[in-house]
């Protein structure tokens, strides 16, 4: 077993807690009733700083100087929106940052984020220049996601006069790789050789001065290196651009000067860099945001500053690509399962602490920003189910599917969903002044999702259901066939929750992002669902649907298409029948965002009860926590199911089966004992403040993390709502009898 925290740390912590109690007693001097300002005695700044450090489990660096943050934002803004040289200073208009930011971490995440940025940028350029001929620049070997979006946005039709909603997000790409810029430059050539030079909103986080060799497929190393990066003062980095990115991404999130309100972290759960770094970057952002939430400054302080830390909601989401689990045609590394399971276990534990742990409610409110989660929600997309899309494209005759092909399909699916979410929340400031006028679109006809809508609607693990249909006016159909095209809303909804497959009319990948149960069983249930004329009773008993707490449904329409009230009611009825226990349903209606009609449904919390999700968590627990006698049989598999289903969690039984700390050596083998001191030496050399040192032992997950994740699963497993019933004080009155009209007797009836 690896060593626990040193005794010196525990002693310092005890002293800090004692000092803090004394310090808090001094803060409670009498003040006027209902006075917001609490008078405080003068403090010893050095002592208080040490107390705060020891009491705070996080040591992320955040810039405190607001003027420096604003200067860094101005520098980044000028780089993103270079002003024409011929304009006078008085004529220059300060542009807003895009409302959306994509953060791609690791090889997989950065590739997907780059893909989305290139697609939207090329589409926007086309529509902002009517005389631009997109066909002349068409590449012979384009990835399928490019072809899909060009068809969807009608880039292949020169005579189109129906522009679409487009938003160019700010894109941050990061990887622990010294050649990340070279890889990004090479990858971008499949879109446009001038893409990197033209797209100023794309920024590369070059972190090679910290580490240039990747995380070695070990997320604990990726997490440790991310902590090193985020704990280090930005002024001490050789890369001068990092402080500008840090101020945008972390220091200024939620304030007036930074207009970005949605942040999507894209990464692969099975790797080391993305899986380890993503949650750490998310935690640093949430820590900074929550700290500002409780930072209430005096009126005098605010009057001295042109900007303030105004509390405005932001929504952050992880977009997590899960590894292949069980496919006889592919041999997958067990380390991928363990890495993904570690991420899921860590996330559920943090989500439990933040959302459900009653013990935390008794804590002082000043500690609220110590209980944070990396994101508001984490969207799950499985690499495993993408093989079904490939099978449907080849009529199921394929025997061996290349892993890179599956990743390509997963990337396309993710690109589609990100694009739909972006268009659903786009605000007018994301467009040029004359954009809507040229598009001929009435913004008043749309129902968009803002950050607050998503913040209130989505939490925890999230699944995605997607489908699209060709409708009248779509370039996918000929003029002679347009009269025969009618929207089948029942079929559209069915395809959105079916196994992933290709839509042969649009070449989009449709279906559900994470299978609720094993594939063959789910296929049979879906067949029964369709054969019974969409009788929901055969499918809604699955925990994936039954235990869902909230959904967000995005309906995207072509510019000239009107969705009938009857079809909209049918869709709402399907959603109500399939998700009987949702307390919140949000709808977004986006007009002009696509040439086809599309439906995206985001399913909150219940995906953690899917087979794939549970399989990955149990794989991690067995390999890295289980005691020797429980590692190689199904004792823990059965026990986890029992822990979730039983009326009370038997923590004593769980403790008897698990070690107290995770053992990274189970992934890194004996290399762990050589790697640990090497990485800690790197930390001490790069972060010189002794009080900021963090040992790798301190970031290992513990058996408490496993317990918290099981508590979260138990909570979702038991989730249900009570149905509202009409109650009345007039129980003795029969309304049916009272409302029955008395009819006059018919004389003919008495004639006999």
The total tally of domains equals 4
What would the CATH topology of the largest domain be? Rossmann fold
Class computed from helices, strands and strand pairing:
alpha/beta
Give the overall form: globular
Question: How much helix, percentage-wise, in residues?
Answer: 40-55%
CATH architectural category of the largest domain: 3-Layer(aba) Sandwich
Radius of gyration: 28 Å
Unreliable residue runs: 1-54, 130-141, 153-165, 427-431, 475-484
| CATH class annotation of the largest domain | Alpha Beta
| Count of extended strands | 12
**Major sheet, described briefly?**
12 strands, mixed
- What is the name of the CATH superfamily of the largest domain? Tubulin/FtsZ, GTPase domain
InterPro entries: Tubulin/FtsZ_GTPase_sf
Can you describe what's shown?
This protein is of the alpha/beta class. The chain folds into 4 domains: 7-55, no CATH class; 101-294 and 312-422, Rossmann fold; 443-609, Tubulin/FtsZ, C-terminal domain (60s Ribosomal Protein L30, Chain: A); 629-717, no CATH class. It is built from 27 helices and 12 strands. Strands 1, 2, 3, 4, 5, 6, 7, 8, 9, 10, 11 and 12 form a 12-stranded mixed sheet that branches. Strand 8 and strand 9 (509-512) form a beta hairpin. Helix 13 (386-393) packs across helix 14 (403-425).
């Amino acid at each position: 077993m690896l060593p626990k925290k040193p005794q010196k740390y525990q002693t310092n912590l005890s002293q800090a807690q004692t000092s803090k109690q004394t310090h808090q007693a001094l803060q409670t001097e009498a003040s006027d009733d209902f006075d917001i300002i609490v008078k405080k005695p003068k403090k010893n700044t050095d002592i208080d700083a040490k107390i705060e450090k020891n009491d705070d489990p996080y040591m992320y660096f955040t810039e405190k100087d607001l003027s420096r943050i604003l200067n860094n934002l101005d520098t980044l803004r000028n780089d993103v929106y270079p002003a024409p040289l011929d304009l006078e200073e008085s004529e220059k208009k300060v542009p807003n940052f895009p409302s959306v930011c994509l953060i791609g971490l690791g090889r997989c995440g950065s590739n997907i984020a780059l893909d989305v940025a290139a697609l939207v940028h090329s589409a926007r350029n086309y529509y902002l220049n009517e005389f631009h001929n997109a066909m002349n620049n068409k590449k012979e070997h384009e990835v399928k996601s490019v072809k899909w979006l060009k068809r969807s946005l009608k880039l292949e039709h020169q005579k189109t006069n129906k522009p679409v909603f487009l938003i160019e997000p700010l894109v941050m790409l990061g990887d622990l790789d010294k050649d990340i810029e070279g890889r990004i430059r090479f990858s971008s050539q499949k879109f446009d050789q001038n893409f990197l030079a033209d797209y100023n909103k794309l920024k590369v986080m070059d972190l090679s001065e910290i580490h240039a060799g990747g995380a070695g497929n070990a997320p604990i190393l990726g997490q440790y290196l991310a902590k090193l990066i985020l704990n280090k003062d930005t002024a001490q980095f050789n890369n001068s651009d990092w402080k500008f990115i840090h101020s945008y991404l972390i220091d200024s999130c939620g304030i007036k000067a930074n207009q970005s309100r949605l942040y999507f972290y894209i990464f692969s759960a099975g790797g080391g860099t993305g899986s380890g770094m993503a949650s750490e970057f998310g935690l640093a952002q949430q820590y900074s945001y929550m700290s500002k939430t409780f930072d209430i400054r005096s009126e005098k302080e605010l009057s001295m500053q042109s900007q303030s830390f105004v509390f405005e909601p932001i929504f952050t989401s992880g977009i997590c690509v899960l590894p292949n689990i069980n496919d006889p045609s592919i041999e997958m590394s067990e380390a991928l399962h363990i890495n993904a399971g570690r991420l899921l276990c860590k996330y559920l534990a943090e989500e439990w602490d933040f959302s459900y742990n009653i013990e935390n409610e008794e804590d002082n409110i000043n500690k609220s920003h110590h209980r944070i989660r990396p994101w508001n929600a984490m969207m799950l997309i499985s690499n495993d189910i993408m093989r079904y899309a490939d099978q449907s494209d080849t009529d199921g005759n394929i025997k061996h599917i290349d892993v890179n092909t599956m990743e390509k399909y997963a990337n396309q699916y993710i690109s589609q969903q990100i694009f739909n979410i972006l268009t659903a929340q786009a605000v007018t400031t994301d467009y040029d002044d004359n954009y809507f006028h040229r598009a001929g679109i009435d913004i008043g006809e749309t129902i968009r999702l803002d950050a607050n809508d998503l913040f209130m609607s989505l939490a925890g693990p999230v699944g995605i259901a997607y489908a699209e249909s060709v409708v009248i006016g779509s370039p996918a159909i000929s003029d002679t066939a347009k009269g025969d095209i009618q929207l089948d809303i029942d079929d559209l909804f069915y395809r959105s929750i079916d196994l992933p497959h290709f839509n042969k009319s649009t070449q989009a990948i449709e279906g559900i992002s994470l299978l609720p149960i094993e594939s063959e069983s789910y296929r049979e249930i879906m067949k029964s669902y369709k054969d019974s004329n969409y009788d929901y009773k055969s499918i809604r008993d699955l925990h994936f649907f039954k235990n869902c707490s909230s959904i967000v449904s995005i309906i995207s329409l072509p510019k000239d298409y009107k969705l009938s009230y009857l079809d909209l009611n049918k869709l709402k009825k399907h959603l109500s029948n399939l998700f009987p226990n949702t307390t919140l349903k949000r709808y977004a209606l986006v007009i002009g965002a696509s040439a086809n009609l599309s439906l995206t449904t985001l399913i909150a919390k219940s995906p953690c009860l899917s087979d794939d999700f549970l399989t990955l968590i149990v794989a991690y627990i067995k390999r890295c926590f289980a005691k020797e006698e429980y590692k190689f049989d199904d004792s823990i598999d059965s026990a986890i199911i029992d822990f979730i289903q039983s009326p009370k969690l038997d923590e004593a039984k769980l403790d008897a089966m698990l070690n107290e700390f995770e053992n990274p050596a189970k992934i890194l083998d004996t290399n762990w004992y050589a790697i640990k001191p090497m990485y800690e030496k790197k930390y001490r050399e790069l972060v010189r403040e002794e009080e900021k040192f963090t040992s790798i032992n301190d970031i290992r997950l513990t058996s408490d993390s496993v317990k918290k994740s099981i508590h979260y699963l138990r909570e979702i497993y038991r989730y249900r709502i009570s149905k509202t019933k009409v109650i009345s004080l007039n129980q003795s009155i029969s309304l049916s009898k009272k409302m029955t009209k008395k009819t006059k007797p018919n004389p003919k009836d008495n004639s006999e």
